[in-house]
Amino acid sequence: MKKVAKAAVLCTAALACAGGAVSPSLAAGTVPGWPLYLAMGAVGGPNIDPPTINSTGEDDDFGGRPVDVVFKYAGVNGNGDPGIVDPPTNATRMTGDLTILSGLNNHAMRVAIVEYTAQMSGGFSLADFSDSPIPDPASGGTYLMARHLISLASDTIALNDLPVAYNGTNYYGSQILNPDLMGAIQQGNLIGSVNGALPAKAVNLAVDQALCFLTTSRSYFNTSNPNGLQSPPYLNKNYTGTPVSILEQLLADTYPVWSIDGAQDPYWNTAINNLIGGTGSTYSQVGVWFNQCIAHPKYDHTAYKRPSFRAGFDGWAEANNWLIRTFSPVGQVTFGWQDNMWAVSSGFWLHADLTKAAIASTYSKPVSDWLNKNAPSTIRSGALGASYIPDYFVFDRYETDDSSSPGQATLYNARSWDNYLTAVGLVSSRFNDIPIMMWQILGSHIPYVGEKNPETVSGSYVFSTAPVYFFGDKKLQPDLGNIIAGSGSTPGTAVGNYVMNCGSTFYNCAAGSDYQQYLLAYQGQPNNFDWGKNNKKLKFAADKAHVFAILWGGGNTTNVIKNFSNVDDHGWLAAKIINYYKNPTYLPSN
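Predicted structure:
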């Protein structure tokens, strides 16, 4: 395939390569607004204080450590907040942070919001598909589906209204939809139950309720002064517009975002059913408007021509897509749905010597067939047509560093990552080479003797292989002779001496292998992979697996910076990414 001319996006600063907006017509196979090279991302979140080039300790302190995108879960609790119409404050606050950081780092950045309009990460539940006035036993919320759809579209509106601005260009945000949902449904063979919970009338009504709330122009006279300031600009002021527009106006007038993100705010609060404090009978203004739209879902049907969504899971997925595209056109806010490597059974299938044909039959074909039959709108054009197709598709890895959960198939060697890339590439090829995002990928590295600042927790080493697989680490000897080799019985205490479970349903290694030997085994041969050099695996990912972005870290997983409860790698991954930007891996183009 012909490659993009490198001169089009040469590095222009010590830390950065230009990440300019990309027209689909000029960069086929990439995602609109994303770089022409394989992008790098990280987990983050709104800062309390504006980031600086040297600030540390807050969630968006990426000064001096540039990435192309920073992702954060929507809402308060990271689970979709069932029963709450969430304000889009994570999106608006992060846009502000990343606009500052883009200038500080001379590097364009984007916001990605992880959205749950239905959530099964904690087990099977149909509650999020309900639009019932009867309180959900788990959350106490009512009309969960309508509230989820409003929260999703509110984020879309905010990302569209307030993109990151850098060097005169707007960098619109992105939305990652419903992690673990489709993996859980396929793994548990639950599609029949899900389809039965989604009659067409319920989905169409929930969308009407959302459109009523989101599109009706309203008036709000603010008398709230949470900080007790003397005559702030937002006090005793009348605001007009849609609910999200009024929120944007309030925040522009320096209304305190901490109040919006709390349970007590009189305009837009984050409490069950948007009741003030989550109890009693007094609703925030947003709660009042929501209740009005539940009772009488009126909106301009000429301006907003809602399709008749089909019954079942795919009709519901189409409704999600349609709302995003209704409030942000193709080429601005981008989005993709997520699936799991364990959707077919568990994640242990990756740890075997598999041909391309075996990977197809074990994973890629079953997943592709399931998507094609049950959820085509999540990965290709459904009944609504090409204007509502997602921009990309997302695969993750079980969100712990490799060393944390060996019983959950987390100990990846190079063979495992080869299998991963081959598998997702085959799924992409089945659906017109849809671009693939690798999301929540583990950022820790292989520890070695003499390392100045190894990652440790309570005396145990924290490690993963993904960044070494993709970037290499010249500090590692070719035979891993300098890997940490401890005397403990856990991965974190033994590291290279950890005794692998080599059974055929586990890690499929030579009997008696320790972790060092397991890492060196490759393509059916022992001592056959050199972790100390760049093995061109980023090129493999871009060219063969159609990967356009790798987003590193998670709330409990090593990230590009130290934030949340993840472990500090003391700048190891950030240094790899800074070096990568000097000569990035360009994406294939027609």
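Summary: The mean pLDDT is 93.
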